Amino acid sequence: MAKKQTAGREQLGEFAAQFAALNDDVLFGEVWADEQALSAHDRSMITIAALIAMGSTEQLDAHLNIGKKNGITKDEIVAEITHLAFHGGWPKAWSAFNRAKQIWQNND
Predict the structure, then answer these.
(1) Contact partners, residue 18, CB within 8 Å, separation at least 6
(2) Could you read off the pLDDT tens digit of each residue along the chain, which spans 108 residues?
(3) DSSP per residue over the chain, as a string?
(4) Superfamily of domain 39-108
(5) How far, in Å, CA of 52 to CA of 95, rounded?
(6) Which residue ranges make up each domain of the chain?
């Protein structure tokens, strides 16, 4: 079962209350929580791929950490980023590797 998400309310609650509620309650509370459709591991792989392909580096660190917690191994993240380098762009992959290396450097 997915952990209750509170980052939206914590970071944007006072500034953008509706967006924060949608983030925590709908995106994470309903979509991410539906593990019958896709596992948390698979959702993380998909999300990380989308963020890398879009060049959305601001969100990448958080989702790499979430992905590691959801069971993505070092070998899987290396394979994913390598694959994306050819479809999303070499510079984006290089940047993603620098972030992933920090997160997976101590263990799988």
Answers:
(1) none
(2) 556 778 889 999 899 999 999 999 999 899 989 999 999 999 999 999 999 999 988 999 999 999 999 999 999 999 999 999 999 999 999 999 999 999 999 765
(3) -PPPP-HHHHHHTTT-HHHHHIIIIIIIIIIIT-TTTS-HHHHHHHHHHHHHHHT-HHHHHHHHHHHHHTT--HHHHHHHHHHHHHHH-HHHHHHHHHHHHHHHSS--
(4) AhpD-like (1.20.1290.10)
(5) 9
(6) 1-37, 39-108
